[in-house]
Every structure is written in C-alpha cells, then in structure tokens.
C-alpha cells in the first residue's frame, strides 16, 4: 500500500442549472494518480441529500481506513466563491432555501442536537502558510469560511465531523473541506456568468493550488 494516500471526495454537477461541477472534474482527473507525491483515491457523490441509512461521512472514513490514508479532503463547488474557500465548521441543519423552500430547520442527523456546530481541526493542513503563499502569487483568494452552504456539502461535512467526535483527538484523521468557484465548463453561458461579477477557476488552477496545499500540509503518513 502506498504510504502517502489521500482520499478526495467531490460532488457531481447534476443540480440546479449547472452542467458540470469543478470538484467532480478535478476528482476524476486525479483518481489513482499522484499529486505532490500523494496518491489520490477519489469518490464522487450525487449532489443530493442521501437517505438516513446512507452515511457518506462514514463511507469516507471507511475508505480512508481501507487505503490507510493520511487524510480526507472534500471538495465542493460554490458560485459565490472567489477562490479556495476553506471551511471551518459544519452545522446540524440544512438551511438552503433554494432546495428547501417549504421546510425550516431540517437536521442532518436527527439523533443529535439541532444547530449543533462542529469545527474542523485544521492544524495538520498548514492552511495559514498555504494562504499566504497562494495569495502572494495573485492567483486567486484562499480564505477561511464559516458557511458550508446548508445543502449536500454541509450534510457531508457534518457527518464526517460527527462520526469523528466520538473518537479521541489523536485518533481523528485530518479532514478538510474546500469550496471552489465554478469552472467555465460548469455553466451554460460563461460570458453571462462573468457579467454577474462572479469568478471562474479553471481545473488547471485548482490542481496547482491543491498541489501547493499538499506541499505545505503536515499530514502524518500511515
């Protein structure tokens, strides 16, 4: 087994008016390949809320154990992002009005307190060094975020963190979630999209950024 393996999760583009999902394109490109010396094992989830019996967070942790991975990196796409949006927390509530127009306060896990906030432990990823280096090159932003979107990204992040909350701190596998902007392939009319003031990020830039991130990360090899 390769001693430096990273699990990467992404979501497909089958939601809203999007044609593709930046995260899915990238995950497919790197699956079974090397990035900055790390072997990538990727999984792409449907952009939906799964049934209660389908715990994607538990699945990611099982995959990490299977491949003896040193960490898990989840990727999502957000049209509001201007660069790498590094999430800092996940909440036990789905609060995306576009997808829940007639519902309020829907929990991710009904067995846990509604509105419970779980925080990512980001020290192993060395994000502060990455942020400084990446932004100094004037490529795109790299900032901390406290809003996972309230839909499938929030759902997945909360499931992973909730599962890990029962473990001792030293047993918790490094986990991070990054939101990426749309790539040009994701929208029907790229010109109209840019006129709204939103940002594109190509998959080449995503690859460069995550390569740099993994160069700085201090993930313990297993």
Gist?
The chain contains six helices and nine strands.
Structural description of this entry:
By secondary structure, this protein is α/β, with parallel strands linked by helices. It has one domain: 3-Layer(aba) Sandwich (Aminopeptidase), CATH 3.40.630. Helices cover 29% and strands 21% of the residues. It is built from 6 helices and 9 strands, in the order βαββαββββαβαβαα. The strands form 2 sheets. Strands 2-3-1-4-9-5-8 form a 7-stranded mixed β-sheet, with helices on both faces. A two-stranded antiparallel ribbon has the order 6-7.
Topology:
Blueprint: E1 5-11, H1 22-30, E2 34-35, E3 38-45, H2 56-66, E4 71-77, E5 83-87, E6 89-91, E7 117-119, H3 127-136, E8 141-145, H4 152-165, E9 175-180, H5 190-195, H6 203-216
Parallel strand pairs: 1-3, 1-4, 4-9, 5-8
Antiparallel strand pairs: 2-3, 5-9, 6-7
